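User: quick one, fold this
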Amino acid sequence: MHDQDIPLPTPGERLNQLELLVLHLMTGDEQQVWSVEDLGRELDDAARVIDAVRELRTAGLIHQTSDGFVFATRAAVRLIEVVGKVA
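Assistant:
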């Protein structure tokens, strides 16, 4: 058997994975409003969470209030219902 290198995820793939993690947090059993700072602490990656929130907001999957809190749109909730939670 040959040793094969497992390709590392690209920066874009890592951002996509982080976006999914953010959506999973936001669409959990008790959907809630989050501060971006709390999401960063929860996922232990504050800088990348800011990028993920910006991308999700641009895609229309989260709303952000004027005071900076974020919550999932109905489309995001349905997306997670369809694709399911990741383990």
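User: anything notable?
Assistant: The helical segments are 11-26, 36-43, 46-58, 74-83.
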